[in-house]
Amino acid sequence: MKTRPASRTAVLVCQGRAAADGLVAPGRFHDAMAIALLHDDERVPVDRVRGGGPPQGWAQRAEFEMLRATAEVMVARTIVIDAAVRSRLSPQLVILGAGLDDRAWRMSELAEVDVFEIDHPASQQDKHDRVGDLSPCARSLRFVPVDFSGDRLEDALVPAGHHRAVPTTWVWEGVVPYLTRAQVAATVAAVDRCSAPGSRLIINYQSPSLPAAVGRMAARAMTTFVRQPNVWAAEPRRSSWTAAAMRTLLTNHCFPVADDSDLLTVAARLSIPVKQRRSLQSGESRSPTARIDAA
Length: 295
Ligand SMILES: C[S@@+](CC[C@H](N)C(=O)[O-])C[C@H]1O[C@@H](n2cnc3c(N)ncnc32)[C@H](O)[C@@H]1O
Fold this sequence. Notes:
The chain is α/β, with parallel strands linked by helices. 43% of the residues lie in helices and 9% in strands. It has helices at 8-20, 40-51, 58-87, 103-106, 121-131, 153-157, 181-193, 210-225, 243-252, 263-269, 277-281; strands spanning 92-96, 114-119, 140-145, 168-172, 200-203. Bound molecules: S-adenosylmethionine. S-adenosylmethionine binds next to helix 1.
């Protein structure tokens, strides 16, 4: 059986946060930890974006543009999710498909919060190696390997120390597009089963978008043309959701949606300057905040 490699999309979004740190929306967006999670070769394109002008050469230019657009998306996405986490801290925070998420190290507000990072085993091992002995600021941090395509979330979460009776904030950021509709529905059902009253779910999902699909095809063609590795080769897009379909899914699990806005709207609300309007408006970034008050 072919072994699944560690996530490359997790590296891309971490590079986006590192590239934007202190440059895009300074004073409102900070992620000084992101750069520490990247290998030396992964920092090179980050330095180019931070350096300003586009580089010479097709290959470097393609990588530069993709990362610059990713950085803008990550700023709005991170600010709005961080704000949702802070707005009502729960004693437990579960990060679903954590990748190189660094909230457990970055957010001092988590000092009294037990954090559980869920991810595919290969990606989680990679994260573990990258983190080394960096100390989190969360009260506790547990890595819990789960493959959403087959494992039952609670079978891993409960032995790791998660308490069903204690309210949980769930963050599910940038993962839904890589799962089938059935896997997404099964995960929401599992979140429901593991949620005490007062729990909340913050989701980022992708809406169907023709311009976004065309943009991805163009990016893929460009990476093939310039002989760069394709970030999405092992992580194909598997589902997109209209706002209505996502709302129905959540409502069917008794989770009323508190807010559901695309990131362009979020960026406008926060007065974040946006150059790549399409990246934020399209399905790349739809709707980060759905709140669940589990009954
Ligand atoms: C784009 S990254 C997002 C990482 C992180 N949430 C962030 O926003 O920085 C996608 C993440 O989803 C995880 N993922 C994708 N499919 C998965 C699956 N079947 N089971 C568990 N995790 C999965 C990957 O391992 C990766 O960490």
